[in-house]
Structures are given as C-alpha cells and as structure tokens.
Amino acid sequence: MRIGIATDTYLPQVNGVTTVVRRIVSLLRARGHEAAVVAPRYPDFPTPDDEQERRIPSIPFPLYPAIRLSLPNARPVTQFFDAFQPDLIHVHTEGPLGLAGRGYALRRGLPLVTSFHTNFPQYSRHYGVGVLAPAVWRWLTWFHHPAQQTLTPGDAVRAELARRGLAQVAVWGRGVDTHVFNPSRRDGGWRRWLAGGDDTAIVLHVGRLAPEKNLDVLIESWRVAHQALGQRATFVVAGEGPVARRIATRLPFVRLLGFLPIQHLATLYASADLCMFTSSTETCGLVALEAMSSGVPVIAADAGGFQESVVANETGLLVPPDDPRGFVEAIIELVGDSRRRFLLAAAARERALAYDVAQEDVELLARYAGLVDATAREPTPCAA
Q1: Domains along the chain?
Q2: Which is the most buried residue in 86, 155, 200, 324, by most CB within 10 A?
Q3: What does the buried/exposed string (b/e) look like for 18-30 if buried means 16 or more CB atoms within 10 Å of the residue's CB?
C-alpha cells in the first residue's frame, strides 16, 4: 500500500501527534509499504524534500510560538501527492496541512482516514477563548465528516464524536511500546544524579509545558509537597513549552531536564518512583501509559483519557483535576509507602501490557487494507 500522511506537527516537535505519526511511518516501511509525509518546515532543522517527505514553509503560532502553522497553499501538497500516487490519505491534524490533505483525498476520490488527537474545544478555555468552543466543534465535525474512518485514542472522545454525528469513529492510537518503556531500564546512576540517594523518591512529570496541561495545579501541589517532604522527595520535569519559565521561577527546587530523546526518556521513567499528570484535556494520556509500562505508579487528573488508562487505587491514584490539596495528599501518601508503590507499579506494568503497540499495528494495517481494497473493487464508470 502507498499511504499519504498529512500533519501540522512533526519532528522536531515532540508531542502525542508526532509520536503516533512516526510510529505509523515506521510501521508501514518496516512491513514493506510506502509512506509519504507532508509536514511543516521548522527553522534550523534540516529536512531535505524527497519522495518520502515534503516540508511546507511555516510561521510561529502566536499563542505558542514553538508550534508552527504552515501557509495555506494546497498546490505543493497536491504536487507532492500526485507524484507519490497514494492509495489512501491519513490526515492527523485539522490545521492548514490537514485541510490540504483532506481536500486532496476528496478531489482525487481516495479513501480518507482522519485522526482526532486533540480536544481543541477544551483547549480554548485554557487560552482564554472558551466562548469559541461551539464554533470549534462545528469546524471539527465538518472537517472529519467526509472521512471513511476517524480514529481517536479514547472511548469518551469516540462517544462524544458519535454524539455529534460522526458515526465512523473508532478507537485507535493508545498503544505503548512495552519493550522500550520497560522496568528493566531502571538505572542507579540516573537515580543518584537526580535524587542523590536510594531513600529519596523521584516524582516525575513528562509532557508539553503548556497552559492546557493544567500546570498551575502542578506548581501549587509540588510547592506544598516539597515543603512537607523535604529531602525525602525530588521533583523532576521532562518537557519544553511556554510554562517552563514559570515552573523554574515558582519551583526553583525542580530539576528541569527539557526535551529528552526516547531512549533517555524511557530510562528516566523507569528510574522514577511515581509520575504525576494534572492535565484535564487528554484524549488518551499516552504519558500515563508510558509510565505504567515502565513500572511506575501514576497520580493523574480524574478526567479525559487518564480515566481510561489509570485504574484508581490499582495502577495509580486519580485526583480531581482542580484539587491541588488532593495531589499533595497523594504524593505524600505514595512517597511514604514504598510497599504501596511497588504493588501499584506491578499492576501498572501488567495493565500496560494489554495496550502493547503490536496488536494496534496489525489493526491499523487491516483498516488501511480494507479501505484500499474497497476502493479498488468499485466499478469504473464508463460512457454509455
């Protein structure tokens, strides 16, 4: 199969969409299929255009300059895909390049698969434009309506999209690589570097440091927990984004590691003692599954995708998303009870194994093949 992919975020950006797109591209090429990607061009990131990848010039997104928006010009996308001759188009984002990919599939009569990765209506509240949420929903439903299949990683999001008239929605994209994210990567050297001693618990947060991640709650809860625990816990953040400076200012005791390549990130997860996530906007919460796969219990917001991946009091703890005191109590409880952490960690690893990427990979290829085969079987119109 020849699969064309359009996305408004890709390397070097690190986020859930990029992770899934890279995974699909690697899967297709490893199984003998072809994949061609249209994505934004990023400054100072060398990406020569070729038959497998076309980068489109982009400008910074005003609310979040690290995110780039490509110019709304469908011509280079059309030229690139025409040269590639795809059997199917998979659109991962609803921005300019996603729109160009969507339009290409519809004009050429190709099967269209879309992905709903990001709950933008919820994001709008965190950026002070919550009044726009109904208009955002209208845009999203219009965008995804022509797709033969829309894939989203959460059951709750699937149900919401179906309620809004998108009957072709399926759950896909919450798989975790349980070989990469593995308890065996726990590293004493990393622990000594971060914590200084085996008796100090490492409390970790991983993810984009942006307003929609509800990080004011993390900041307040970590400030209080640090005062209560002292040297019994060290607090570590892996990730980049516009809130990083606020975290550094408000929490000078935090170890800010910035972006880490996947192998180092896997070692960091496994070397931690618990992971905490306060976001209430996750469609999946892949970071929680990565932590669980690494054998680490999770303290997460009782909202969105975390409700589906974390089993309360079995693989971690769930806390109301706007309850800093609840997060403080959860941190203190787990830091002080190593046996409870061990039991939660073992159950977390076991649950993550059920989300291993292998089964999802087979499922995705079957979805693609079914749509491509259905198109190939359609009768060709002929003149009377």
Answers
A1: 2-175+357-377 (3.40.50.2000), 183-353 (3.40.50.2000)
A2: 86
A3: bbbbebbbebbee
